[in-house]
Amino acid sequence: MRKLAVVGIGPGNYENMTIRADRALRECDVIVGYTVYVDLVKERYADKEFLTTPMLREVERCEMALETARGGKTVAMICSGDSGIYGMAALLYELRGEAAEPEIEVIPGLTAACSGGALLGAPLTHDFAVISLSNRLTPWEKIEKRLACAAEADLGIVLYNPRSKGRPDNLRMACDILLRYLPEDRPCGVAHSIGREGEAGEYMTLGALRDADVDMFSTVFIGNAMTKMIGGAMVTPRGYRRKEVPDA
Amino acid sequence: MRKLAVVGIGPGNYENMTIRADRALRECDVIVGYTVYVDLVKERYADKEFLTTPMLREVERCEMALETARGGKTVAMICSGDSGIYGMAALLYELRGEAAEPEIEVIPGLTAACSGGALLGAPLTHDFAVISLSNRLTPWEKIEKRLACAAEADLGIVLYNPRSKGRPDNLRMACDILLRYLPEDRPCGVAHSIGREGEAGEYMTLGALRDADVDMFSTVFIGNAMTKMIGGAMVTPRGYRRKEVPDA
Predict the structure, then answer these.
(1) What does the DSSP 8-state code read for residue A164?
(2) Is pLDDT above 90 for A247?
(3) What is the pLDDT of residues B31-86, one digit of tens each?
(4) Interface confidence (ipTM) of the complex
């Protein structure tokens, strides 16, 4: 059976990869990925063959992975974060269609909601929404609607892709929508370059987030109504009924 | 410095732990956790001291971990899935308050949205909400509101804790709310016992999900408007503008 593993490598450092992802990269013949992600793993798996394509060339990259697997090589296609959440697994399924080969194995990885949340403290202890601010593949009106609904539902909110060269104002526009529902002093956090050089957590209010310095390696966390700063960390308590719980 | 690591061990099997979580468990003196989770790691880290408390005794368990760390031992407190998302990290911060010690290190792990999604295919390629159906610590009305908002916003939805002994009807009640907004034939999936004995993925419509056989080790995935079954997997395509992308 021809085999293609789509591997979530987590935020980028070896430590935050799973045992299973590491094994898949050690056991494959070819590693396929976006140039920047391949550079993150190249040194450790130096005996592999590498195939890369630049950013935005996702279809081409997936076709390359499928073709290489059909040719008989064991392929690992890497994604940053999780392989499913905003990752390449879906596109591989779409492009393979109803064909039986190659077999696709989806190997999960730490998405930024997990790794960035840990960097900031515990902002996502309760229900939350993950929303990408990239309007490259999604109409902005749809993103606006999701932000409004998430705020109205008192969900914690994680924003992926808060900024890119072509979209310098998306975070400000998103904050303006959220500020219709949420107070200016709502605790927020930004996780910068998780697991890479320059990793840093930063805390601020929703009012200040509007003008925060974020880039394409930032992940933004907006607290729910219970979120507060405790001991220097962003913390969302677990429940709304602490006092009723026997041991709480 | 006294040190307490709160460690997300992922769904339960060694393979799905991160390198960093494995290292923290190897390097600590004492492993603290809910009995069922401690049983998952006991064999591999057999030289450690183990401290357990039964289910629901979260405050007691966290106090035990903090106290042991204050006593000078290096403690790893384990959580299934992620240490932050519905995990114990927040409660540790709350109980420690503004004290400087012990230092709390939050080590993230694969949450069921990642690991269960991978088991089913690629259901979460686009924006989504994670909602727990446990009303032990949250009023049911709040859960209802979140379900309604998530459906209205066309978010993918992941349901944690879809059922427990005390709450046999929560999934049915949740489906009834979702069915006010979403069609009966909306593709859904259930990930059973991820990474443990009995692991299995199951696919069905939202109409059928209402009467599905789920337990406390199940995680439920409800697709967005674009989700479909492709090649036997539940797949949510990445974007809403595929045709406009040059290489798509």
Answers:
(1) B
(2) no
(3) 999 999 999 999 999 999 999 988 778 999 999 999 999 999 999 999 999 999 99
(4) 0.95
How far are the Cα atoms of A130, A174, B43, B79, B135 from residue B141, in angstroms, in the given order? 22, 27, 42, 27, 9
A242 or A240: which leads in pLDDT: A240
Are A85 and B125 an interchain contact pair (Cβ–Cβ within 8 Å)?
yes
- Whether residue B114 and residue A10 make contact (CB cut-off 8 A), yes or no, is no
In degrees and rounded to multiples of 5, residue A100 shows phi and psi of: -85, -25
B18/A10 Cβ within 8 A = yes
Dihedrals phi, psi of B41, to nearest 5 degrees? -115, -10
Share of chain B above pLDDT 70, in %: 96
Mean of the per-residue pLDDT values of chain A: 94
Could you write out the DSSP letters of every residue in A69-99? Answer: HHTT--EEEEESB-SSTTSSHHHHHHHHTT-
8 A C-beta contact, residue B84 and residue B90: yes
Residue B220, beta-bridge partner list: B159, B190
> How many distinct helices (H) and strands (E) make up chain A?
8, 13
Model pLDDT, residue B243? 47
Nearest CA in chain B to A145: B153
Q: Which residues of B touch A96 (CB under 8 A)?
A: 230-231
Span A89-104, pLDDT tens digits: 999 999 999 998 999 9
- Given B17, B93, B241, which is nearest A19 (Cβ)? B17
* Amino acid A242: pLDDT: 53
Q: Which of A16, A125, A133 to mutate to test the interface with B (most CBs of B within 10 A)?
A: A125
